[in-house]
Amino acid sequence: MLDPYILQQLAIGLSLGMIYALMAIGFTLIFGVLNVVNFAHGEVYTIGAFAGLMAISAFGPPLLVVLFIALAAGALAGFGLERMAFRPFRRFSDEASLKSRAMREATLMSSLAMSIIAREAMEMVFGSQFQTVDLAYLINKPIHIGPITIVNGDLIILGVTLLMLGGLQWLLKKSPIGLSIRAVSNNALGAKYCGINTDRTIIITFVIGSAMGALAGILVGLYYGAIFPSMGFTPGIKAFVAMVMGGLSSVPGAVISAIILGLSESLSTSFMPSVWSDMVAYAFLLLTLIFFPQGLFGARRERV
Amino acid sequence: MKLTRRTALLLAAATALTPVAAFAQDSVKLGYQLPLTGNTAQYGQDFKDAAEIALTKFNASGALPVPVEIIYEDSRSDAKEGVTIARKFVDDKEIVGVLGDFTSTVSMAAAQVYKKAGMVQLSQTASHPDFAKISKWQFRNITTQDQEGAVNAQWMMDKGIKKVAVIAEQTDWGQSVAKGFVEPFEAAGGEVVYTEFFNRGLADFRSIITKLEDQAPDAVYTGFFYEDGAQFLKQMAQLDAEIPIYSTSAAYNDQLIELAGEAAEGLLLTATFLPTRMDANVQDFVTEWDKTHDHAPGQFPAQAYDAVNIMLAAVVKAYPDLTRESLRDAVAATSDFPGVTGNTTFDENGEPLKELTKASVVGGVFVEVE
Amino acid sequence: MSKSLLIKLGLLVLAFALIPALLVGFDKGYYYQIATIAAIFMLLAASLHLVTGVAGLLHLGHAALYGVGAYVAAILGANHGIGFTLGLPLAGLSAAAIAFLVALPTMRLMSIYFAVATLGIGQMLYLVFLNWVGLTNGPNGVMLFSGINLFGLEIDSDLGIYYVVAGIVAISILVLNRLSHSYYGNALRSLREDDQCASAMGINVTVMKIQAFVISAFFAGIAGALWAYTTGYISPNDFHFSQSILILTMVVVGGLGSLPGVLIGALLLILLPEALRSVGDIRNIIVGVLMFSAILFLPKGLFGEVSALNFARRVLGQGWAAKKGEKGIGWK
């Protein structure tokens, strides 16, 4: 049973899952609060990677500094994104507008428009090819554990994911900001009546979620050594799937679903041609939707 | 890329405006459809740069009394846009021949238009097995996988390799890579133990590599472009899979080494173009290219450079009685054209016949294998 | 009433006399091509409009159903000798059949869950186009040699093809228009606004949603067949997720719930990138910026639903108008 082959595939699946989870966390946070899909999250992820890359090629700081630069770039991008693509559509705060489908779909499209603009602009400035990354910065140094091989990046990503997850849970459950985030997510209008500054809360949510997205971008970029303008697309779809499987607004649920996705992808390669492995992920998605319409972990009605 | 997009933009704007200029009546016009934006823009931009080098050199040489112009249109590697551009080129009565597109799918969709209208289409990369068979108007300047696969199969046989795994991208080109290799290899008595295709842009090859190692082949034959190739090589090294890797000319690009670093060491491949070769025409091209680029030109820009030159030579041959029909015949008659990717002759189907060289990555550079 | 007739006639004259006259006048294949693509995408947008605009179901996999139609038409035409006349309805029916199978389990899903289900199904169909080499020829695509043959009549002039495409698209849009501006359409709108309430009023929510989804897929399949026949070569990339997003953008930019708006949106998103061709690499950024400003400054779309409804009432309302001595039926 403990065939090294299966063990190795499991290890790969776990590390893939962690990578999806990294992106899904920020995505779920923003969705959980605003109840809108942020199509531009993939571009925030890319911006984080490019910000880190520019820092590396400009003055070659230590890895930790690179990560903080990506975090800052992500926070800035999140702030700008909220200002441009989401704020203008909250100008009507009456109940009808808040519930209106047209208004919600407007932010869907405005974030999509932002993502198109950002991606095309990056393609114009940097070109659409893989950027050259200083190989010393890559976090893919092999580590052998018995019969299996992992890389140092796996440990870093695991650490960051746990840190993000723990930090977020603490923030949401214990801090006053988290309380207002949860309030807004539960009932924006009610929160407003209680004196919570909803605009500020939403901005904070965007800043935190986008900073996490950008951090994911630079980490995954360095993990694979592949940084290019459309890098956010595939992980974006996977994160979206993980978020839905996890029940849309549960961050731990999204993380667990992301790991399930990663495992199923790597293991399915053993049984079928790899081109079909995405099929497994989508099949999982549909099965979850049909049999657990609230998501695997959404039943507890946890909002964030 | 030192040639910034902005200058390229200005150039494009300038070319867009020039038709009104004085020499519009007495110049020869060619069309070039290629992806200048979108996911595959890096390839299209390289083609454009290579074409500009060829064109500038040609116009300076005075081989024709009138200058030749190339009109570039951006297809974004989208069939919709490719077909629209094809119609646009066909409409322009002054355009006598067309180059491009980049991907086979767009080239094939556009080919239906050129076939109907009767315009010669010479692609530098379209690799679909049926592309050149669409009609007498389609030509391509690539190395066919039947040729490349056979050379690689023989190469492995010579080294005593009997068990091979084949990994190729899931595109028409990847399919032909696998087919072109497996047939001659099995005919020569080799065994293909594992065949796998992957979707382009796959980030993680590790599952495939683990499965591949499990089959314990003596070598891996791969069909990928340099970006996927760099990912594959890095992850092979990461998993300590010490299996020799053979590849095709499509992986021949300095950026492969730059992206993969140490992991590219020992990669074996066939190519038709080596920028280090001392032939005068190769060095001309490489010197011009280096003026605007940080990297030596790879296989694809070289193919584009040759495609443009083949087209220009055909224009000279057909001039002054230059029509779409006469240009087509001139292109078809191309024989032993001395290009940077070797001598090119078109067979009756419009397929090029090329000579292949073997190369390997040693000490971070591609070197020719004797 | 004569005014509504005038608008209708005006549109018909525009589509079947004015535009063809211009096309013949310019005599450029390029313009024919744009007109054909615009017509196909108008049909795609109009069919998505029924699901997303009227019934309010966010649908992220429309391009895959369009692909089903294209593949059915192309494979039947290329391998089984079934021509355009029969291939066109078969393409529509196959897309509808697949949509029906898909809709059965997923239709009870709410809002965003449904959107994700359509995303997943769209991606699965795309994987089938790309990887089921035996059926779809995989990444090699399908080449269709036979031209448009309508009831034994070979049509291969540019003008003829335009008339065929424009005719089919016009009929389809007319059907979609009647559907969305009728009691049936109003019932669909009630689902969009509040499906619990609609259910309480005696509307069978799930059945109606399935119907809308299947009808929309039928027309997407028709559009796919038109694309396959007008291009002569299809490959999986033509039906990628990004095409679904493109169609959805047409619907939203044009105005959710408004058919005329949606058609204008489709025209805009096809014509704009072409018109901006001379601008060079920056053209897609401009498209993005325009899209953003359209959403920002015209939140209800270019042609909002209310005005669209008024327009439709004027144009189509006479069928419900009170006849002499009878009681009127309909909206009033």
UniProtKB/TrEMBL annotation, chain A:
Kindly list the GO CC terms recorded for this protein.
plasma membrane
Question: Cellular location of this protein?
Answer: Cell membrane
Q: Domain of life, per the record?
A: Bacteria
Key words of the record: Amino-acid transport, Cell inner membrane, Cell membrane, Membrane, Transmembrane, Transmembrane helix, Transport
Q: Name one GO molecular function term.
A: L-valine transmembrane transporter activity
Q: Does the keyword Cell membrane apply?
A: yes
Question: What kind of membrane protein is this, topologically?
Answer: Multi-pass membrane protein
A Pfam family per the record: BPD_transp_2
Indicate the transmembrane segments per the record. Answer: 12-37, 49-81, 155-172, 202-227, 239-260, 280-299
List, in alphabetical order, the GO biological process terms annotated in this UniProt record.
Answer: D-alanine transmembrane transport; L-alanine transport; L-isoleucine import across plasma membrane
Q: Which family does it belong to?
A: Belongs to the binding-protein-dependent transport system permease family. LivHM subfamily.
What is the recorded name of this protein?
Answer: Branched-chain amino acids ABC transporter, permease component
Query: Which species does this protein come from?
Result: Celeribacter baekdonensis B30
For this protein's source organism, the top of the classification is: Bacteria, Pseudomonadati, Pseudomonadota, Alphaproteobacteria, Rhodobacterales
TrEMBL record, chain B:
Q: Which residues form the signal peptide?
A: 1-24
Question: Origin, by domain of life?
Answer: Bacteria
Q: Which SUPFAM superfamilies match?
A: Periplasmic binding protein-like I
Q: Name one GO biological process term.
A: amino acid transport
One Pfam family it belongs to: Peripla_BP_6
Keywords on record: Amino-acid transport, Signal, Transport
Is Cell division among this UniProt entry's keywords?
Answer: no
* Entries under InterPro entries matching the protein: BCAA_transport, Leu-bd, Leu_Ile_Val-bd, Peripla_BP_I
Q: Where is the Leucine-binding protein domain?
A: 27-354
Q: Does the keyword Transport apply?
A: yes
Which CDD domains does this UniProt record tie to the protein?
A: PBP1_ABC_HAAT-like
Indicate the family of this protein.
Belongs to the leucine-binding protein family.
Query: What is the name of the protein in this document?
Result: Branched-chain amino acids ABC transporter, periplasmic substrate-binding component
Q: What is the lineage of its organism?
A: Bacteria, Pseudomonadati, Pseudomonadota, Alphaproteobacteria, Rhodobacterales
UniProtKB/TrEMBL annotation, chain C:
Q: Which Pfam families does the entry link to?
A: BPD_transp_2
Q: How does it sit in the membrane?
A: Multi-pass membrane protein
Instruction: Output the InterPro entries linked to this UniProt entry.
Output: ABC_transp_permease (IPR001851), LivM-like (IPR043428)
Q: Which GO terms describe its cellular component?
A: plasma membrane
Is the keyword Membrane assigned to this protein? yes
Key words, A-Z: Cell membrane, Membrane, Transmembrane, Transmembrane helix
Q: Give compartment(s).
A: Cell membrane
Regions crossing the membrane: 5-24, 30-50, 57-76, 82-104, 111-133, 160-179, 210-230, 245-272, 284-303
UniProt keyword Phosphoprotein, yes or no = no
Q: Where does the source fall among the domains of life?
A: Bacteria
Name listed for the protein in its UniProt record: Branched-chain amino acids ABC transporter, permease component
